[in-house]
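Practice problem: predict the structure.
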Amino acid sequence: MSLPTTPFDRDSTADDVLAGVDLHGRTALVTGGSSGVGAATAHALARAGARVVLAARGLGTAREVAARITAGTGNEAVTAAPLDLSDPASVRAFVAAWEGPLHMLVNNAGIMALPALDLTPEGWERQFATNHLGHFALATGLRPALAAAGGARVAALSSTGHFASPVVFDDINFAHRPYDPFTAYGQSKTADALFAVEAGTRWAADGITAHAVMPGGIKSPLQRHAFGDDMDARARAIYEAYPWRSAEQGAATSVLAVASPLLDGVTGAYLQNCQEAPVLDPARAAGEPEPFGVAAWARDGEAAGRLWELSAAAVS
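Answer:
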C-alpha cells in the first residue's frame, strides 16, 4: 500500500505533524534521544502526551534532556535509560529490563564517517555494528513488546548517505577493499533502510509497521568526524553546499512515521520531507547536496531478506 501524499514538506516541524494528535496512553522509545533530531523527536512526542524513554550511551546527558522536556511540556512520563548499541551485552540488558507494550520505536542513534577502520570485538565495522546491528538486535528483542501494543510502529533512520554504497555482502567489514568513512557510513544507512523493508513484511501479522526515515541534515554531534575543524576539501564542499535544517524540521518525518494517523495501515516506505520518496538513480543523486529519493539497492527485497538472515545470525 502506497503512502498518501501528506500536507507536510521539508519545512514542516514535528509539532506541525502532531498538531491535534493525542498520544496519551502510548509509549515511545527514542534511541540517541539526548541531542539533535532525537531530542527534538522525543520532545514532540512528549508534548503530544506520550510516555517517552530516551535511550543513550551518555545517561547523565539523557537525564538532563528528559528533565528539560518535562519542564517544557509538563509531561512527567519522560525518562532516560543507558544503551550502547555497539555493545551486544548493553542491548541485551536493555531488552531484558523493558516492561510493558511499546507503541513507537524510533531507531535514531548513529555514528558517522569514522576516520579510520574500527572493528568491534565481534569483528564488525563499527558503523555497521552501531547503526544497523545494534538497532536490529534492539528491535527484534523488543518485538514481543511491539506486538503487545497493537498497531505499533517502527522508524529506522537512514540518510541520503545511503547513496554512497549498497550493503557489500562479500566484504561488509572492509577486509578486502580500502576503507572509506563515507562508504562505510553509506553501507550502514542502506542497511537501516533494508531493515524497514523486511520488518514491514515479516511483522505485518503482528500489526507492526516499519518505515525508513531520511530526516535531512541537522548540525549535531553526529557530524563531528565528517565535518570537524580539520575537514578536507571534499568534506568542506559537502558542508557548505548542504541545505541544513533545524532539528524540529528533521524530527517531522520521524514522528510522521511513528505517530501520524495518515500512515495507518501503511508499511515499508522510505520517507523523506514527510513524503514517500521515489527511487532515484545514484548517478543523479551524486550531483545534488540533498537528493530527494532512494536508491533501488535500499528497496531491494532480496537484499533485505539476505541482510535480515545475516543480522539475526550476527546478534544471536
